[in-house]
């Protein structure tokens, strides 16, 4: 950067030197420049940190965001400005001061911790980030900015990795400076975050760039890791899509297209994509079979981007066999990874031995797998020699730890996130993956394995985001049977703990049999934190000293439980048995007693130590662990064992609820074994139906526990229920004491058959069966027990649970022998109380039924309040007989029993003050009163009893039972009986019929048996007794006597009825073909052969020389062709050979050699049958190869070439113009591009040039002088161009050829109907009568002579009229007239006040109206008051002006000073224009506002490159562009259709002409009409209106007509109002860089000059797009060429030449402005550069007079000749189109670059003048000469 500033400064200094100054001053300054450049070079050569393979990332399309954005701006759109690829644009604001057009992003304003975030899309290995600071103000705001890269989208200091230091104030002070942030080492990243950690800051960034190295440098992997080639591997998947099978789909993920993440091909078809697709489905998977065992260390998966990839939570498992429970590599895919896509890495730490890889997801989701790659290490790194070692799946296992800090509980260490070492994710502690204890003594973490495993290895993932050193000293211990504890491996060292995120492997010295793993730190104050624990095991038989299961042989008898020990066992006997093996029955148990399985039953206890929810610990006494007597866990934690304990309290107790009422006989309690067993002293057990704990509730079993019993740790105490309590569903265990602690380990329960708990009430009251209750005998003598005080049950043996019913008493609730009365809720009708439990009972021994009728029920049943009634003496809400009311019952309830229970319960609230209930009851002893008999039976009264006389078909006490007529089993023969009222119907079994199915159906009736068989009938069946020879169910089958295969020797058996016959095979005879025939008997063998007999055959053993079945054929010994080269003669048992010529020997096998005399002259001789043949050498032929071959005989040479024959070859001497081996190629004489301005046509030995329009000559090197034919007329000056000319017309003429005399009358200058007479560049007006003046614009005032005698004179065109005073009339108001009529009575004045006068009336018009009747709206626009082409809009009594752009003021009289805001910067001079301004920059600055310091060459931007004009042609200008709109369009960008804004489009004017004013309009009415829309017809005469008063013609002259007006349009416009520009023609020179071709009414076409394209040739073709520059050079685009800015150490046109020893300077910018020079008749400017420069480009800035046609043909030359015209030319001559564009810039590119000391601007058409012509800048140059 320093070099550029120095060079620019010196170049400006050179340009300011006068020619007379001594040259040594220049050389002195150049020497100073070189020394400064050397100093700068030494600064540039300071080495920056670099990494092998580092390259810049393409950030296009990456997701980005920022913390805030300016008001009404989108954060994402603003964030995108920092990666828009405009690497050198440091402007936040555009030319209008808006952020929209700038290239920088900025936040809304000062904020806390402003930041900018870039999502890279997948993992990248980042090495460097650079920031381009703002250059147009407040660069200091970047101070303190930091760059962090990593995998977390967070600015927290503990997240991600910082690259380099924060931006210093010195760095931020450089406007537009670039700050590099180099990472100390490559960082694995998904995010780049740039932020300013401050409470009040603004972030602004202009361009962010990022560099990376290959991803492997961030993931080095274990030693020896290399990629496993899986391309084309055996892959499968769970889902098939379209026509491809699952294997074809799956194979796309191993097709070797490592960077192709496209699911579809270019045609949108999935078959052509490179990705496998599964799901969406549950348990989607993709599998790769590796074929053989490998030690897998890493797996990478490429997926699609934008959310289309691996599902969140997808995992990679590798192992042996296709199982998803194999070992997991890495962590499950996170949500952010799933959203970003790209490549995800899964590290197997440690490496895993595997032959299968599976990618899967458990939830319904799709997976897109584009490429899977697998990495392995040597096999010796797997399992460390333990071949059968496998990982134990402990994800989600039962874990605990000494204490919990925050959310970091023990389960986070077994969550399956194997490589997530973060304790906190984005300030979210719940999102972390690590466990942590508090600081304490000996912190631990515990894993329960549930069963024994042989543990071989444990790994711990240490924390990665801070305090990893806390793991120092962690030790792994394994707890086995009998609480044996062994240590696995060594404790974690300080060095191991110092590595954040490291996985620490701990191998057990030998495998340990364990069911618990414990990790702890032996310290007085430490905190244990771990992020993932993993465990490996080997088979149990590899564990030393493995305990054998002595219970495997089932030694314990009689259902006893066997307990395995070390080399021993013990038996826990079932009830009733004893002995070591429980082999002996016990006499102390009850007969029929069995244990009740209460494991998992409902349990509760009165309290728990330090816990609110006590019931969860009560369940420990029913967990089935009959021998576990520990209250404390391994860690000493309360409730860690299998026992429970209460607080020290009054009456502590524990209850168990059974599944149903049972006859309980015995209960046992297992006491605590690990301390304080004596606390069980005094414990009692009660059983019954109450869940409370009071001494008068339920029944006590056994005696309280004695101190001796309680003193035995882990002892069992039995409680036998000596008096059976009846059926019980609750067991209560407690200590009746004011202060005691209850602790229990296991409770067991035994029961008897249920009938042993029932009492017989029929035995009456002696003895009294009632439990603590009065017994009253009933009418039948049965016992009736009267229960009180919460007792219930048939014998009052049960106690109601927790009676609480104040203020009622037992007398209110237990009612006996009262036959009618009421009961009610406590306190009724006052609101009932809370937490009530009120039992009621009504009954009498002689009661037959009890009626209940509720008078009132006011209870909120939704609040768990309830009201229950139940027949009988036992209260149980669980009973099927219990009825729970849900609303008010409207009917009387009848209970058929002598007792009824009612129970009322309330909860903790009665907010609505509800009353409860009131019930009326009646006890009935006469059952007939209630019509108790059912089904039409008659009730028969008796003595306090009744009976029912049932109708037929019913029975029962109440005839309630339909007699089951099927009870007598009337249906016969197994029929099904269906009962009916007083009858039955029988569904017969198969085979029977009749009303009672008494008849056996005769199945033989249909004569089913065939072939004379006898039918025997059965039940639903029959059988057939077949005649001889038949079988089958119906005797339908003829028995096949051939089935036993009686015929022998392959004879055919023929079956008959009860018989068979044999058809013998040839050679056999006999009944069964058992006898063989002797075929040798006829002596069939010939020629002395021996015959051998066989089965139906014989064989002949032939004598030598014969063959054939009968030895009848003489063997042809010649058949094998034994004679090799001759004829064979056959003999008996022999042959002889007659040899062919050339052969001899017994078999004619010897060849006689024909080549022995070497007959072949020029070739190789081959001996052949009876002769030889010659294989000739190349170039020879003939029998003996004696003839030389003529290769020219085929005339191979083309295009007249002469053939010269050689030996086996030829050569061609080509005719002129051809070349090639066969002269087949015409020489391209066009290769040297001889045609300068045209197309070269190659010809034979020559070429011709097809010249571009405007050029001629053999080489098209002459510009055709289109002015030669003197085309311009009327004295016009002709200016020649390329294929065109322009005419500068003399005054008074126009047109392309100046052929048209300008009609000065065309604008209708003469007014008031005057006649215009056109002349040469002038006109004259012949005035109509009444007018005068040059334009007849002055009305002659006929009123000047005061002709009206008694009135007012009104001057009119060529006359006057008199408005008479009241009482006068006549032409001159001479006549006196008197009238008594009111002239105003009809309101004649339309817009004014009517004044009645002597002889009529007069109108006093309102302002803005005129005329006799004030009908005419005065046209205030008639005087054309608006200046500077402003449009006048007529209004009532006024007007307004719509000013042209750039003007203001009421009359548009003021030119707006665009320079007033001082827009030009850096001391530039502002030049105001109309609606524009331009800046004349001070030296060293450039840009539209002179805002840019000239530093290094930046190509001038063509404002039209973005094609801003939507419907028109764009004109590039120095400070912007302008649009020439196509017909029908308007607007700054030609983006609006004219009709869309034309208010007149709908033709709103009914009877007149519509004049459009943008969105408004005005109607000019036709004669006889008025109104806003000319909608009102006028019956009165109207005054004529001049429709042209409002100037409706936009770009033309208005002609007034009787019914409106017409517009005569100016040149270039058309339309009704001349509002539309005419279609472009070539006369407007629309083609910027090319030739215009006119197509008449169809428009034009531009033929672009080389290097340009676009409709108007407005776009410079970017020749740099092919990246032609080499060796890191920067390509600078030119016109049809490029130039390369070489990197240091390279030179050449494309920087392809390495510069030895760094002798040349790095190319730099030369900026030289030519001074004002005196132009002489040479017509050129020339400047002396003093020293040599390599000039690459010269730029001409056109200012002031440096425009116009006179610049056409201007060229720029550069070279070492002081005579400028002898130097080389840069670029091409300036075209007429380029010359005419105002305020533009023209580039002249020197291709190739020119070594120059002089730069010349040659303008051939320039007249001799002595004024400044142009500003010329040499923008690209290198000190010193140019090098090839």
From TrEMBL:
Signal sequence: where?
1-16
One annotated GO molecular function is: calcium ion binding
* Pfam families according to UniProt: CUB, EGF, F5_F8_type_C_2, hEGF
Task: Give the superkingdom in one word.
Answer: Eukaryota
Task: Kindly give the InterPro entries that the UniProt entry links to this protein.
Answer: CUB_dom, EGF, EGF-like_Ca-bd_dom, EGF-like_CS, EGF-type_Asp/Asn_hydroxyl_site, EGF_Ca-bd_CS, FTP1, Galactose-bd-like_sf
- Gene Ontology biological-process annotations: cell communication; nervous system development; signaling
Give the bilayer topology. Single-pass type I membrane protein
Q: Quick check: keyword Mitochondrion in the entry?
A: no
UniProt-recorded name of the protein: Uncharacterized protein
Q: Which organism is it from?
A: Patiria miniata
Q: List the disulfide bonds.
A: 573-582, 765-775, 787-796, 950-959, 988-997, 1026-1035, 1064-1073, 1102-1111, 1118-1128, 1139-1148, 1155-1165, 1176-1185, 1214-1223, 1230-1240, 1251-1260, 1289-1298, 1327-1336, 1343-1353, 1364-1373, 1384-1394, 1405-1414, 1443-1452, 1481-1490, 1504-1514, 1525-1534, 1544-1554, 1565-1574, 1588-1598, 1609-1618, 1626-1636, 1648-1657, 1686-1695
Localization: Cell membrane; Secreted
> What's in the keyword line of the UniProt record?
Calcium, Cell membrane, Disulfide bond, EGF-like domain, Glycoprotein, Membrane, Metal-binding, Repeat, Secreted, Signal, Transmembrane, Transmembrane helix
Q: Which residues form the CUB domain?
A: 805-924
Q: Where is the EGF-like domain?
A: 547-583, 761-797, 924-960, 962-998, 1000-1036, 1038-1074, 1076-1112, 1114-1149, 1151-1186, 1188-1224, 1226-1261, 1263-1299, 1301-1337, 1339-1374, 1380-1415, 1417-1453, 1455-1491, 1500-1535, 1540-1575, 1584-1619, 1622-1658, 1660-1696
Gene3D superfamilies the record matches:
Galactose-binding domain-like, Laminin, Spermadhesin, CUB domain
Q: Which GO terms describe its cellular component?
A: extracellular region; plasma membrane
